[in-house]
Automatic annotation (TrEMBL):
Pfam families: AAA_3, AAA_lid_2
Domain of life of the organism encoding this protein: Bacteria
GO molecular function terms listed in the Swiss-Prot or TrEMBL record: ATP binding; ATP hydrolysis activity
Residues covered by the ATPase AAA-3 domain: 47-176
Keywords noted in UniProt: ATP-binding, Nucleotide-binding
Signal sequence, renumbered to the chain: none
Protein name according to UniProt: MoxR family ATPase
Domain ChlI/MoxR AAA lid stretches: 240-311
InterPro entries, A to Z: ATPase_AAA-3, CbbQ/NirQ/NorQ/GpvN, ChlI/MoxR_AAA_lid, P-loop_NTPase
Family in the record: Belongs to the MoxR family.
């Protein structure tokens, strides 16, 4: 049966997440699913990639999510002349002390906003690899821990746009999910004109949670139960991408781990202490699609990785959706 402590944690999580959601939605009009997925990634302890054309609110969403939490925030504007040391930091020689002193870079924050990440060279982009995976930075033979919680929210424009570099496969694989913001509806755009016409709504946005609250919520999400059947379902989905004839690169084991972690967060946000196959299905496209590479023939046929993931989800057999409840006595 569900313990009192587990239920209390879920109740606290839902209440705090609801406050953060309302704060973000006071800035981002008409995109509830995008905001919810962003919160899911935050509570799963992952990193978020926002990809879309310019002007649809990617940076605004990243700023709103960062400002809704009372924590340290750094923004990195990725440009072709940005250097890796601008991100990680550099050792500077102190004339008085006669030794080198490490000056932390912009990555030393709890939430790092990487604006237009694919406008920097792949060499500069790779400066984030260690920090995103291991939550640390190694410089001059020394390792420096990053603060907790640590989340990278990066925005990028589609690769076919001028002045962009494609993200390396290893970089894409470290983002838990990729979200497309999309154009707003006519009604949402009208409300945006009214609310953004004078002062930016970011100016009046106040934090809805503290960094310590987010750490507790991330720990609570890790306790959400995942049955053997649901874990097997996640593995079946990612394994199907590796053997797909129109994909030259399938999902990695890290992708499977991210999929299950995100499903735990989604279940917790729904007030459940267990993961259902529905959670896995709803997150399959945002978690898996950006990691896949289509074959040359698939690109010629204009098939997208999102289509391949959707087809794999449709064809993969689904386990008993209520097995988790029976195992835990819900």
């Amino acid at each position: 049966m569900t313990t009192y402590e587990e239920q209390t944690n879920l109740t606290d999580l839902s209440a705090t997440a609801e406050q953060v959601r309302r704060a973000v939605e006071s800035v981002i009009e008409g995109k509830p699913e995008v905001v919810r997925l962003s919160l899911t990634v935050l509570l799963a302890g992952g990193h978020l990639l926002l990809e879309d054309v310019p002007g649809v609110g990617k940076t605004m969403l990243a700023k709103a999510l960062a400002k809704s939490i009372d924590c340290s925030v750094q923004r990195i504007q990725f440009t072709p002349d940005l250097l890796p040391t601008d991100i990680t930091g550099v050792s500077v020689y102190d004339q008085q002390r006669k030794e080198f002193e490490f000056k932390p870079g912009a990555v030393f924050a709890q939430i790092v906003i990487g604006d237009e990440i694919n406008r920097a060279s792949p060499k500069t982009q790779s400066a984030l690899l260690e920090s995103m995976e291991e939550r640390q930075v190694t410089a001059d033979g020394r390792t420096y821990e990053l603060p907790r919680p640590f989340m990278v929210i990066a925005t990028q424009n589609p690769v076919e746009m001028e002045g962009t570099y494609p993200l390396p496969e290893a970089q894409r694989d470290r983002f838990m999910a990729r979200v497309s913001v999309g154009y707003p509806s006519a009604e949402a755009e009208l409300r945006m004109l009214e609310s953004h016409g004078g002062v930016s709504p970011l100016a009046s946005l106040r934090p809805a949670a503290h960094a310590s609250d987010v750490i507790k919520l991330i720990e609570a999400v890790r306790e959400v139960h995942v049955s053997d059947a649901v874990r097997r379902y996640a593995v079946d989905l990612t394994a199907a991408t590796r053997g797909h004839p129109e994909l030259r690169l399938g999902a990695s084991p890290r992708a499977t781990l991210h999929l299950v972690r995100a499903a735990k967060a989604a279940a917790a946000l729904a007030g459940r202490g267990f993961v259902l196959p529905d959670d896995i299905q709803q997150l399959a496209v945002p978690v898996l699609a950006h990691r896949l590479l289509p074959s040359a023939q698939a690109q010629l046929n204009r098939h997208t990785t999102e289509q391949f993931v959707t087809d794999i989800v449709r064809r993969t057999s689904v386990p008993d959706p209520y097995a988790a409840q029976r195992l835990r006595g819900y």
